[in-house]
Amino acid sequence: MDTMERAIDIQLEDLKKMILLMGGHVEKSLAQVTAALLSRDVDMFSGVHDIEKLINEDHIRVDNACMHVLAKQGPVAKDLRLIISVLKINNDLERMGDQTVNISYSGKDYLGRKPIQQQLSDIQKMSEIAGRMVKGSLDSFVRGDVEQAKKILLMDDEIDALKNKVFQDAMAHMKAHSDDVEAGMDLILIARNLERLGDHATNIAEDVIFAFTGKDVRHGGKFG
Amino acid sequence: MDTMERAIDIQLEDLKKMILLMGGHVEKSLAQVTAALLSRDVDMFSGVHDIEKLINEDHIRVDNACMHVLAKQGPVAKDLRLIISVLKINNDLERMGDQTVNISYSGKDYLGRKPIQQQLSDIQKMSEIAGRMVKGSLDSFVRGDVEQAKKILLMDDEIDALKNKVFQDAMAHMKAHSDDVEAGMDLILIARNLERLGDHATNIAEDVIFAFTGKDVRHGGKFG
C-alpha cells in the first residue's frame, strides 16, 4: 500500500467493500426466490428471511460507517459525492431486499394454488436481467466505470417491456379463467417487484454517474 | 434573530423550508389525483405532471443544498444526523411524487373503462390517511416532535389493512365479472401505490426519530 495514501481513501475502500457485500446478499436473495419459484420448491422461500436479516444489518452498518467518515473527515468534492452515493445505494439495496421478500410471499401464494398454464419464462428472464443489473451497477460503482453504468440504464427498458408482457398475458388468462384470478395476480405482483428491482439498479447506476462525473442524470439531467 | 446563532443553524432552517415546500407539492399532487378519480374528471390528471416537474426540481435542489452544507460546514453529531435525514426524506418525497404519477396513469385507465360497481370509498380513505401521514411526518420533522413521528408509524397499519380490503374486494369482483379484470387491476394498482406512499411517510417518521434522538428504529430497532 502506498504510504502516502490518505486515511479517507482506506475508509472509502471499506465503504465500497460493505456495499459489495450487501449487493451480494441482494443477488443471493433474488437467486433464491427465483429458484424456489421455478423449481416449485416452497421450502426454499424461507431462506430469504435469513438473507433479509443480513441485508438489514448491512443497511444500518453502512449508514453508520458513512456518518462516521462524514463526521471524522469532513470530506468535500469527489469524496463527499462518493459518500452521498453510498448512502443512496445503501437505501436502494435495502429496498431491493424488501422486494425479494415480497416476491417470496407472492411466490409462496402462487405455488399454493392450482397450477396454471401461464409460462414462467418471462418471469425467469426478468429475474435474470434484474440480477445482471444489480451486479453490473455495483461493478460499475466499485470500478468507477461510468460507461458500464450507462449500459445499466438501457437494460431497464428490457425489464419494463417484459413486465408489460407478463401483465397482459396474466390479465388475458384471468379473463378466460376466473378460477385463476388469484394466481394471475400473484404473477403480476412478482413481475411488478422485479421491475422495481430494476428501477433501484437504475438509481444506483445514476448515482455512479453522479459520484464519478459530478453530473446529475436524474430526471432527464435537466436540473443538474 | 439571535446574533449568536450559528451560520449552520440558518442553513438547516433553509433545508427544513425546502423539505416543507417539497412536501406541499407531494400533498397537492396526491389531492389532485384523488379528486380526479373521485369526480371522474380525466382532465384533472394532467395537472399532476406539472407538479411532478416541481417535485423533481425540489429533489435536485435539496440534494445540492445538503452537499453544500456538508462541504462548507463539516457538521457533526446532531447537525450531521439532521442533514442525513434531509437527504433521506428528500428521496422518499421524490418517490411519493412518482407514486402519485403512477396513480394518475392507473386512474386514467380506470376512468376510460366501463364503470364498475366497486366503491371507491376505501381508495378515498387510503388517500386521506396517506395525506395525513405525509403532512404529519413533515410536521414532526420541522418541529422535531418525536411523539408525533411515533403516531405516524401506527397509521401505516390502517392503510395496509385498507389495501388488503381493496385487493380482496377487487379480486372477488374480477372473479364474478371477467369483463372487469382490467378495471379491477387498475384499482389494485392504485391501492398499492397509496400503500407505498404510506410506507415512505413511515420512513420519514423513522428518520425524524433518528435525527432527533439518535435512535435507529428501522428494522425493529434491533441493530441501532
Automatic annotation (TrEMBL), chains A, B:
Primary localization: cytoplasm
An example GO CC term for this entry is:
cytoplasm
Keywords attached to this entry:
Cytoplasm, Phosphate transport, Transport
Quote the subcellular location field of this record: Cytoplasm
> Which processes are annotated in GO (biological process)?
intracellular phosphate ion homeostasis; negative regulation of phosphate metabolic process; phosphate ion transport
What Gene3D superfamilies does the database record attribute to this sequence?
A: Phosphate transport system protein phou homolog 2, domain 2
Q: Which Pfam families match?
A: PhoU
Q: Which residues form the PhoU domain?
A: 19-104, 123-208
The signal sequence is none
Q: Which family does it belong to?
A: Belongs to the PhoU family.
What does this chain do? Plays a role in the regulation of phosphate uptake.
Q: How does it assemble?
A: Homodimer.
| Descriptive protein name | Phosphate-specific transport system accessory protein PhoU
To which species is this protein native? Bdellovibrio bacteriovorus (strain ATCC 15356 / DSM 50701 / NCIMB 9529 / HD100)
